[in-house]
Write a structure and sequence with these properties.
heterodimer; A: mainly alpha; Arc Repressor Mutant, subunit A; three-stranded antiparallel beta sheet; 18 helices; B: mainly alpha; two-stranded antiparallel sheet; 2 strands; about 5% strand
């Protein structure tokens, strides 16, 4: 472990992936809450032609040039998408798909053009499809770090307006906030995240980095600042774990490994987060059903029997359903499993009926506070 | 005749036309329903199925591979719906959670187990339409490119499905509630449609790759939607534009010496721009003309009054 920590390549990868994770967690929180998750997908695919243009214009594999190119084409795709939605009858989903597909196609065309011209430095350009952590150099951290700092700094500075825009855009517009400009800013910040992720995760899977940590964090937190912080931590954890794993294993693309770690975190949060998690919810629900509801359903059967003056009274299942405003078949069956009720056949066209057993009778009477009032049979 | 079919240019263009026709045919219903991005999810998710099918059977083509890999596209749709149903995550985020996970799993499986097979992730992503004529089949004495045969069968299945369920699909697309009331089972129909999208994506990925397939599914139907209000006409226009994109893309790719599949996909974009500008009622020029008429009319009204 100690030699691993002092390995300069791994250190670089760890710093880079942690940076990317923090950034995508912070910006992803806004994208997910604003229901714009798939915008990241379009922006990241649209970064490919920019990477190629950056390379063609500078003739070198300088990360700054590639990042600048990627930012330009990603923003162009965002504008194309917004214009399609605003000025045609196409809906958002089609506009996202069109921008994603056509910009990526352009990227593929440019990529093959670069390969055909046979520039020696082009080797490794297609590492931007899936990311390659091992190719990250110390010098690359400078442009990535500056972009990350600017993006996170802007979020901190404009925290209040961004929060308002996320939760209540109409109110934000009503009090005179520049809503269009703020929306543009969020798009720009997501594009910057994509650009920082180019080298590490690649254009195809950056969408997952934007969504997964934020969706995971949402399950743990009920406040925006909590969610942003937890998402940043989740993002950094998936980045460092996945990036390290892929840098240590030759032939393993970095992007997919980081995305798998982030997906596992999201899946785990979906199931096990304390308040919103599915497993705690199922447990609470099961608990509630087994105690409170079943006692109340038994009480209903008992009351109906009391009103008809006979403990042997057969209560129609539909009547119990109507009384509770829900389907009680499962609860009635569980009560009969406990020996408190028994199902009885009535007229075949009238549905299932239920009758108290002797045990059920005394249980219900005790609960009703009238242990002596066990109805005769 | 046979020589013609296995000549590289004919095989490549034919493959592109078949991918375009099959994708656009199904895409019309996705675009109309507002579910275009499901094609993005499905076409990425099939990589998981392709990797699993290869690991289990060693198949990199053929009916077993297509069917098996298509299942993973349907699995993706099912997972997305399950995640949405928990009400913990909205649909857009659910799509973005599920397909990258399946796609990543596919890439990692190929990275670890399939180093020496032609199934590397770059092929999957970008396709190798330039080589489709090399893989040939002999059927009843005819030597045919395998991709053309496979895609022709898939296209026939897609067309058959749409012909058989045309009315039900139309109703389920425009009024799902009424379709449900009348007993047309729109959900089942939709799953049927998405299974075909999956199968078509698997058959097409060798040629155009998973991302460019999205262009054929979304762009021609979107262009057709800007040109007409009638479903039948929209289907025809979408298929026509997608099919025409293949030869146009091939010719320009040859001229520029760039990716054939990429140029075919870009050609669909050319049609979109044409439809966007000159579409008879929904195009930008028609809209501007209508707006001018509307602003002119009141002036005429007051002057005549």
């Amino acid at each position: 472990m100690i030699p691993l920590l002092s390995d300069p390549t791994l250190q670089t990868v760890a710093i880079g992936t942690a940076l990317l994770g923090v950034m995508s967690g912070v910006l992803g929180s806004f994208a997910v809450l604003r229901r714009e998750s798939l915008l990241g997908d379009t922006l990241s695919h649209a970064a490919l032609p920019g990477v190629c243009l950056g390379f063609m214009l500078t003739g070198a594999r300088s990360l700054t040039a590639l990042m600048a190119g990627a930012l330009v084409t990603a923003m162009l795709a965002a504008f194309a998408m917004v214009l399609l939605v605003r000025y045609t009858r196409l809906k958002t989903d089609a506009a996202l798909g069109i921008a994603l597909g056509l910009f990526f196609a352009l990227g593929v065309v440019l990529l093959t053009h670069i390969q055909a011209t046979g520039n020696a430095a082009q080797a490794g350009l297609d590492a931007f499809l899936f990311g390659q952590a091992a190719a990250l150099s110390r010098a690359d951290l400078l442009p990535m770090g500056s972009v990350g700092l600017v993006a996170v700094g802007l979020v901190v500075l404009l925290w209040k307006p961004l929060k308002l825009l996320t939760f209540d855009p109409e109110y934000a517009a009503a009090i005179g906030l520049p809503v269009r400009a703020l929306e543009l800013l969020i798009t720009l910040l997501v594009a910057l995240t994509v650009v920082v992720g180019l080298q590490l995760v690649g254009v195809v899977l950056m969408t997952a980095m934007v969504i997964a940590p934020a969706a995971a964090a949402r399950q743990w937190c009920a406040s925006l600042h909590g969610m942003v912080i937890v998402a940043a931590l989740f993002g950094a954890a998936s980045g460092v774990l996945g990036g390290g794993l892929s840098a240590l294993t030759p032939g393993l693309s970095t992007g997919p490994v980081i995305v798998l770690v982030a997906s596992v975190l999201a899946l785990g949060s979906l199931f096990f987060a304390p308040r919103r998690g599915l497993v705690p919810a199922w447990w609470r629900q099961g608990h509630r059903l087994s105690r409170t509801s079943s006692d109340r359903v038994l009480e209903t059967v008992y009351q109906l029997a009391c009103e008809h003056g006979s403990g042997r009274y057969r209560v129609e299942e539909g009547a119990v359903d109507a009384y509770h405003g829900m389907t009680t078949a499962a609860i009635l069956t569980s009560l009969s499993d406990r020996g408190l009720l028994e199902a009885v056949e009535h007229m075949p066209d009238e549905g299932r009926h239920w009758r108290l057993t002797n045990a059920g009778m005394s249980y219900a009477a005790t609960r009703a506070g009238r242990p002596d009032e066990v109805l005769g049979t | 005749m046979t020589d013609l079919l296995i000549s590289p240019a004919v095989a490549i263009v034919l493959t592109g036309m078949l991918v375009g026709a099959a994708g656009a045919l199904l895409g019309v219903f996705l675009v109309l329903r507002g579910n275009s991005m499901l094609s993005d999810a499905i076409s990425h998710a099939i990589l998981f199925g392709i990797a699993i099918a290869w690991l289990l059977t060693g198949a990199t083509s053929g009916p077993v591979q297509i069917f098996g890999a298509a299942l993973s596209g349907v699995l993706a749709v099912f997972l997305i719906e399950s995640v949405v149903r928990t009400r913990r995550v909205r649909q857009d985020a659910a799509i973005g959670l599920v397909f990258p996970a399946l796609f990543s799993l596919g890439v990692v499986l190929l990275n670890v187990f399939a180093r020496d097979v032609h199934l590397d992730e770059h092929t999957v992503l970008l396709g190798e339409i330039g080589f489709v004529w090399l893989d040939q089949l002999t059927i009843a004495g005819w030597v045919l490119p395998r991709s053309v045969v496979t895609l022709a069968v898939i296209l026939a299945m897609d067309a058959l499905f749409i012909t058989l369920f045309y009315k039900a699909l139309k109703l389920a697309t425009f009024d799902p509630e009424l379709a449900r009331t009348l007993g047309f089972m729109p959900t089942l129909l939709f799953y049927g449609l998405l299974s075909l999208v999956s199968g078509t994506a698997v058959a097409a990925f060798d040629a155009v790759g998973v991302v460019l397939f999205i262009c054929f599914v979304i762009v021609p139907p979107a262009a057709a939607y800007l040109m007409t209000d009638r479903l039948g006409v929209m289907l025809f226009l979408a298929v026509a534009m997608a099919t025409a994109s293949a030869p146009l893309g091939y010719i320009s790719a040859m001229a520029l010496n760039v990716s054939i599949a990429g140029m075919m996909a870009l050609a669909t974009g050319g049609f979109l721009i044409l439809a966007l500008t000159f579409g008879p009622r929904h195009g930008l020029l028609a809209r501007r003309a209508r707006r001018r008429r509307l602003t002119d009319q009141p002036t005429e009204g007051t002057s005549s009054a």
